[in-house]
Amino acid sequence: MKKITYLLIAFFAIGLSAKAQDSLAQYTGKFNFPEGSIVSYVTVTAENGKLNFSSDKGTGTLERVAPDSFAIPEYQGTGKYTRNADNKVVGVVIDVMGYHIEGVKEIPAIAIIERKYYLKSERKQFAIR
Question: What was the pLDDT predicted at 69?
């Protein structure tokens, strides 16, 4: 009986860990900033249940403070993700060391190709934004 209890607890813990990693995955990707910004891009990755970022100016971590809002402790700043009408992450707003910058999430080419195929197969006109 003890073995079954431990086994159930282990499966539950693994499931929670996988769900936490999946919830962080929505925040990952490359975000591009307008020309003249203090950074040109930020790449966010999820590793070991934490979000990390790298840019052309440095690296650091993101610590969740609220849904879609994160602290950037290495630079005494904050980041907030923006979403579209479909509730997908499409951008980020960063306030750090007196700078306010807004970036747009880069859409992988494969996602664009898949979207074109789907819309073309439905015989609908489309515009990719």
Answer: 96
